[in-house]
Amino acid sequence: MQHRTIVEVMTHPVVTARPDSTFKEIAQLLSDNDVTAVPVVDGEGRPVGVVSEADLLAKAASLPDPEGRPMGRRLGRDDLARAGAETAAAMMTAPVVTARPGWNVAETARTMYRSKVKRLPVVDDGGRLVGIVSRSDLLRPFLRSDGAITDEIYHDVLRETLGIPSGSVRVEVREGVVTLTGRVEGRTVIPVLERLCRSVDGVVAVHQSIGYTYDAEESADEASGLRGAPGGSAPRR
């Protein structure tokens, strides 16, 4: 089974700013490149922070109202600091959370979700910027067709990984939702099959109603009971 890595979905090359980039330079970068944020990199190309539209907006929010109306809710201390900033170094969010090119989509999504950020700079082994990945990039695998998902489950999951005989399990995919029916030999195969199907790129959910021929755990319990009974017979309950 193959899973998309971040290097396949990230944006590169990346528009960047320097720590000494001015407010207007950053605003121009965002406008010219139709992006909502830029990584700030040092002289070695290593990201040291991120400046977003929200950081620039703090300055606009701090301006006095032209008609003299009260500001209402006042800006917090951090927002006030950004509002008075003149360079990227003073405006940026730091330290910066980064991703690695070899990460898969799920790992990157978890990092983004836990860190409550909308994008992650991607860095190489030396910490240098090689790309940037956004929320929309992580959703791209879900654009896979139902047919492609079905083919991967039949070929990679059922046949190549689990060795399930052809025709034993039927796969139906609609809008990324996988439904599995049929029968397998051992009960323990079922949760493994579900987990592998959920890990296929583009799968939204997995439902199954699969029967099984035997349960290894139940067989082991029965065998243990027979060995413990006088004369080899099962103990009475």
Automatic annotation (TrEMBL):
Protein's UniProt keywords contain Membrane: no
InterPro entries to which the protein is assigned, alphabetical: BON_dom, CBS_dom, CBS_dom_sf, Diverse_CBS-Domain, UCP036990_CBS_BON
Keyword Transcription found: no
CDD domains cross-referenced by the UniProt entry: CBS_pair_BON_assoc (cd04586)
Signal peptide span: none
Name of the molecule in the record: CBS domain-containing protein
Source organism superkingdom: Bacteria
PROSITE patterns, per the entry: BON, CBS
UniProt entry keywords in alphabetical sequence: CBS domain
SUPFAM superfamilies named among the record's database cross-references: CBS-domain pair
Species this chain originates from: Streptomyces nodosus
